[in-house]
Amino acid sequence: MFDGADGRASLRIERLVQRGRTVDVHLENGEVLSVDEETVVRGGLLVGVRLSADDIARLSALERQSAAYRRALLFLSYRPRTIREVRVDLGRRGYAAEAEAVIARLVAEGYLDDRRFAQMWIEERKRSRPRSRAALLDELAVRGVPRDVALAALGDYTEADEFEAAVRLAAPYFRRARGDLRTRVQKTLAYLGRHGFSAETAYAAVRRLRDASDGVDEAADDGHFC
Q1: Considering the entire predicted model, what is its pTM?
Q2: Cβ distance 216 to 201 under 8 Å?
């Protein structure tokens, strides 16, 4: 790659040879710099342009940014990510110094958007893995979504949505729970509580499941349930 500034006189670019996504920059002294094609564009590299030691150092920084950007795009190709997840990954890959510039570019280009990530996360949970508002906030916080962004994304998550999520989450657990009806009810209430649902929502959800179950044992309702 580049050696950086070393006090040499400027060198003229004699040839640019494309090799896939890499471009060989042939200098007049016989040196060849292999750079990403994006660096050629961003660095304004053309035949006849002269490069000083400072220019080469600047191109080296651009090349690292290009490499970090490519790494971030690869990371994003597997699934949507948050800004913090990209920042952490770039740091682990040795691109901590380039991370903020790369993130700013990805945000500007629409590849990174914590609000969109939060909305997608919430919709996926609604479809396949129901969660309470509290649990969703915790999950998004773990992934680095700022709380105000997560709350804004949850703006359309109504009490009715939370109730339906509780019913869907509890239904298979209620069916599988062992014991008499009262025991199954108590186990399911505790299960929903562990998943962040309020007592009010849990009681309402389990009442629906109890009332819809076959052979409801009315004696199980001892006055403390709902």
Answers
A1: 0.71
A2: no
Shared domain for 91 and 133, answered yes or no, is no
Rounded to an integer, the average pLDDT of 90-108 is 96
How many Å apart are CA 118 and CA 129, to the nearest integer? Answer: 15
Please give the pLDDT value at position 138: 93
| Residue 175 shares a structural domain with residue 202 | yes
| pLDDT band at residue 128 using 50, 70 and 90 as cut-offs | confident
Domain that holds residue 126: 115-220
pLDDT in tens, 136-146: 999 999 999 99
Closest by Cα among 86, 143, 99 to 118:
143
| DSSP letter (8 states) at residue 220 | G
Asked if residue 96 is part of any domain, the answer here is yes
Distance, in Å, from the CA atom of 150 to the CA atom of 142, rounded to the nearest integer, reads 11
Domain count, the chain: 2
Name the one residue in this structure whose structure tokens are 């699934």.
79
Domain final residue, candidates 109, 124, 159:
109
Cα 152 to Cα 68: distance, rounded to the nearest angstrom: 31
